[in-house]
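The following block was generated as part of the benchmark described in Methods. Ligand: S-adenosylmethionine.
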Amino acid sequence: MTTPIQANVGKPNDEYALLDTGRMKKLETVGAYTLVRPAPQAVWEPSLDETDWRRADGVYTRDTGEDGGRWTFHKKVLREFDLIYGNLNLRIKLTNFGHMGLFPEQAANWDWMRAAIRRRLEQTNGRNLYVLNLFGYTGGSTLACSQAGAHLVHVDAAKGVVDWARKNAQLSALEDRPIRWLVDDALKFVQREERRGNSYQAIILDPPTFGRGPKGEVFKIEDDLVPLLQSCRAILAKDALFVLYSCHTPGFTPITMANQLDIVVSGRRGKVEAAEMVVAERGAGKESGRLLPSGVYARWLADA
Ligand SMILES: C[S@@+](CC[C@H](N)C(=O)[O-])C[C@H]1O[C@@H](n2cnc3c(N)ncnc32)[C@H](O)[C@@H]1O
């Protein structure tokens, strides 16, 4: 197992950038705006001046109450707008929970999946390649794989989020590609696929610590992850290409992730990598090189 640090330093036309971090906050450029959001892991001093932080157009602060927190805006800010990031055109929504529909730390995984799919399609003269994306959220991974030419099944429990992902497909000019959009419980879906004998050449999963299926089914990572991974093993095709497993659960380290990924891929020939996901600061027009840890991943790629 190798453990590389995977830095996302961004692409030249990206309209998202991490400018600075520190004092448990992050300063980001998101489209036309500069925003401050919580970053509990950033227990260090910011690099930029306080005046740079004070100039932010919006600040999200977390409350202890039910609704999570609130935005304070210092100028007129649209709560919904579109931006280009990681070769995708995405709708951003400044939600009441502080989320905005984008996990920028995933962009390096999008590139890795695109490259793997393109290589396999070349080797097989374009034979259909099926990718299952569980807990697909607003569709970044789905759309990256679709751009590379794969057939997708995208599963998420929340209809509103699936609609948002479909909107992103439209914005990224991918709405006519072979993508099935399913509002379903991830565990139930995979167990059903196992009973039906269906299989996939690639599986992506980004489980939450706690989540609910569309009929209120509870997903608790400590109880439901292992059965989910066991069923993923059962539906991973003989000619599988990759498995990408990521999460943001506190206490899950790259080694935890690699051990769990092993449930899916043990005995197969290929390469496993496990590392932290990070976003690199791009403050004051320079690559400062400081990395903001943003979750972990383990991934397996079949031998070519
Ligand atoms: C991408 S995951 C978790 C993201 C990130 N790893 C984190 O912990 O914040 C969040 C997505 O999972 C979906 N989700 C939660 N429980 C689910 C379930 N039981 N079945 C399918 N999707 C679910 C949510 O609707 C949401 O879009």
